[in-house]
Amino acid sequence: MGHEGVGFKSGSTRSGLPTTRSRVPRGRQIQKTFNNVKITVLCGFVTLLVLRGTIGVGNLTGSTLESEDQRVVEDIDRILREIRTDSEPEPQDPLSSLYFVNSTAHNWTYAEAVEAVNYSLGPKISDWDQQRQVWLSQNPNFPNQLLGKHRILLVTGSPPNPCDNAIGDHYLLKSTKNKIDYCRLHGIEIVYNMAHLDKELAGYWAKLPLIRKLMLSHPEIEWIWWMDSDAFFTDMAFELPLEKYKNHNLIIHGYPDLLFEQHSWIALNTGSFLFRNCQWSLDLLDAWAPMGPKGIVRELAGKILTANLKGRPAFEADDQSALIYLLTSQQDKWMSKVYVENSYYLHGFWAGLVDKYEEMIEQNHPGLGDERWPFVTHFVGCKPCGSYGDYPVERCLNSMERAFNFGDNQVLRLYGFAHKGLVSPKIKRVQDQTSDPLQVKEKLDMAARITM
Amino acid sequence: MLERCIGERRLRQIQRGVQNMKLTFLCLLLTLLVLRGTIGAGKYGTPQQDFIELRQRFISHPHRALAEQNQPEPKPKKSDKDDEPPLRSLNDPYSLGPKISDWDSQRADWIRRHPERPNFLTKTKPRVLLVTGSSPKPCENPVGDHYLLKSIKNKIDYCRVHNIEIFYNMALLDAEMAGFWAKLPLIRALLLAHPEVEFLWWMDSDAMFTDMAFELPWERYAPYNLVMHGWDEMVYKDKNWIGLNTGSFLLRNCQWSLDLLDAWAPMGPKGPVRTEAGKILTKTLKDRPVFEADDQSAMVYLLVTQKEKWANKVYLESAYYLHGYWGILVDRYEEMIENYHPGLGDHRWPLVTHFVGCKPCGKFGDYPVERCLKQMDRAFNFGDNQILQMYGFTHKSLASRRVRRVRNETSNPLEVKDELGLLHPDFKAVQHHAS
After folding, report:
1. Of A132, B230, B271, B378, which cross-links B316 as Cys (Cβ 3.0–4.6 Å)?
2. Position A331 pLDDT exceeds 50
């Protein structure tokens, strides 16, 4: 009697059917439950099978749309990773074994390290000027002058793998177009390097073996002009005043007081400079290179440079600091042939220039090359290709776009167009088409004011 | 309470009915699912198709996200939207610019007045301007810009060795002629602005030079004004839409060319004009799929329908690969290296390998991305090796970005000649004027 009515309250007395649970035999109860469970399991199983056949069981958990997205992104990432990596290991520091073995017994000095590495850009050449003269006289159809102007070779480059930041490649492309435009207008050849010619002198030092190689391969070239990939031409009308440099072999932007009095590590800029193709330049390259080899040499050299140059942070030796150190410590040997140029922006630090472009357009005109209309706007520290630079990414990218368009307007002007604004990729017509285009061309002056 | 209304028996009947219905419904659902999974449900498509559609919809998403994240925000200008040109109606004829009828004499006058910029560099070698380009906006595909960069480096190298100038276009000169038609207004503007240029060489951004030693046979083209890769029979007899290729062609700077551009342009303007023209082209040309008019089909159509007017000045070149379809070339590079040498320009060592259909910059093209990108790397290295050998280096393999030395440094660099003679080739020599 105790269990009767438990869990069963309504009208149990009305029907004649067994209504209390306790009246139904236990076995039957269990059987029923079991049947229910069987059916449930069977249905569940069939459902799973069907769903698996259609949209995949992995997608049953969580949103299906997200996982498609995820899979596509993973696909692209995988392809990108494969493209970016090369299966070869990084080149070893030639001294690393010695260093670690003897580190307890011996502290390497820079001089010892240099001697141990014994790096050389190549076999010593002492008669390059004569070799070159002979060659030029034997090859009159490859003269070192064209239309009275010495031949210049602009050299630039970037690493062979895709940028860590995809937008970096886009600005490398725009920077290359910018250089192609300037060089076409001024009859300059371009070499775009993507190869690591010397694994020891990797990074910013890579320009040294490259410059030497190009000098020796192209005796018809009088000037080798190195330009960083993050430097843009912003004055398309400006012509280098080569006559000024008749008696010099290295033209580099900088400030003599910062160089000689303060020994500042930014007294000169090696992002845009010219080397004459001559023996003196080969010698300078040989004297410049020793601080470059990767590893312990570069590290120890970095310490010396930080100790001797004003304002230099502590990091491994870079080519710019090394050159400043070389020129200041061996002034008598080199400085007579070095022209420290600051009458125009052979290199123009971007931060002080990019916001003034509109003002320049209003007040000045191309062809000046200086602070009124900078020749080169150099995005030092932006590093759009790498993962992080010294400045906020957006400011850098926005400014690079402006600099590019500022220069591009001077090219588009030749065809009657201009950008709609310094940030806009769209263009508008600024000069109507005519059936007498050459009359217009005759009157066109690259140094005339720009109207936007 | 329900039981009080209906009665116990009734209630149980209803309960059983409901349970049966539940079972029926469940079975029906399962049946539908299974049917859908196997034979599809009509217009809704199979889940497989759903999958593909979803994939496609979201494929652009990650790239767009990257691009949007990184692209500088241009200041929104109302004028941008207003400047979208209204779609041209079919009755409104399009013109590339004011009609010029005396271009040959205008040009001759100019050249006479400016002897410092002659249109011929030597007796046989014309001044050539290579024209290529890409969009001013970052690619939707994150590696697209990297391949555009490699492609332009490749062109810079060929043109430096062959003394050819380059114009890299990033401007849309005429919004109506967007897409593949954008080259027409550009070519016209360049021809008129550069009278000193004798030949304009248009080359797509997805085409790469793979024979650095091959100099174009300029004397062969003296009687012609337009040189394209193609076959006479395929164009004039078969009317095949791929009988010629407008991805790499030469156009002489003369009145005939301006007239040709004017005759070529009408099918181009975006909108109903282009769509209707596309239908005509698909009807007339062999094997052409249904899509809006493209410049290549329009060129075939023009040559076929106005043969007497144009064909005598058009040379369809098939002796070497002025355009070489990548599909039949890229797997044979190792074989070519083993058996042949640069300078041939043809099937043995193609001048140009053209990655038609790959579209590395945009959304996915007609071929699998991986194959396209890997093969573009190989083609690039294949060409780059010929440049690097000038300086004593080569790529470690056709797939590797790394290089290794193949010629030691020497203290007498001028006595060493590079194997292919590309450092100081004849075709780069300046005409030696007696001073």
Report:
1. B230
2. yes
Q: What is the pTM of this model?
A: 0.82
Q: Which of A136, A169, A382 to mutate to test the interface with B (most CBs of B within 10 A)?
A: A169
Give, as one character, the DSSP assignment of residue A107: P
Closest listed residue to residue B282, CA positions, set B259, B309, B300, B265? B300
**Residue in chain A nearest B27 by alpha carbon:** A43
Separation of alpha carbons B395 and B411, rounded Å? 24
Q: Is B368 helix (H, G, I), strand (E, B) or coil?
A: coil
**Alpha carbon distance B330, B357 (integer Å):** 14
CA–CA dist B201, B221 (Å, integer): 13
**Interatomic CA distance for residues B96 and B174, integer angstroms:** 9
Buried b (16+ CB within 10 A) or exposed e, A79-90: bbeebeeeeeee
Q: Does ipTM top 0.95? A: no
Buried b (16+ CB within 10 A) or exposed e, B203-240: bbbbbbbbbbbbbbebeebeebbbbbbbbeebbeebbb
Instruction: Look at residue A288 in the predicted model and tell me its pLDDT.
Output: 97
Interchain contact A43–B (C-beta under 8 A):
yes
Among the partner-chain residues A54, A214, A416, the one whose CB lies closest to the CB of B33 is A54
DSSP E strand boundaries for A292-354: 338-341
Q: Does A67 or B427 have the greater pLDDT score?
A: B427
How far is residue B413's CA from residue B423's CA, in Å, rounded to a whole number?
Answer: 12
Of A424, A380, A382, A430, which is closest to residue A404 (Cα–Cα)? A424
**Residue owning tokens 């069977």:** A42
* For testing contact with chain A, the best of B26, B145, B363, B396 (most A CBs within 10 A): B145
CA distance B108 to B100: 14
Task: Name the residue in chain A with its Cα closest to that of B140.
Answer: A166
Contacts of A437 (CB under 8 A, 6+ apart): B100, B106, B192, B193
As given in the structure block, the two tokens for residue B258 are 């301006």
Binning chain B into helix, strand and coil, the percentages to the nearest 5 are 50, 10, 40
Query: For B109, phi and psi rounded to 5 degrees?
Result: -60, -50
B367 touches chain A (CB under 8 A): no
For A233-270, what is each residue's pLDDT tens digit? 999 999 999 999 999 999 999 999 999 999 999 999 99
Side-chain-facing half-sphere of A16: CA atoms under 13 Å: 0
pLDDT tens by residue, B292-329: 999 999 999 999 999 999 999 999 999 999 999 999 99
* CB proximity B111 to A under 8 Å: no
Give residue A126's Cα distance to chain centre.
36
Closest A-chain CA to B369: A79
Pairwise CA distance, residues B377 & B399, whole Å: 6
Compute the half-sphere exposure of residue A413: CA atoms within 13 Å on the CB side of its CA.
23
Determine the length of chain B: 435
Please tell me if residue A196 touches chain B, with a CB cutoff of 8 Å: yes
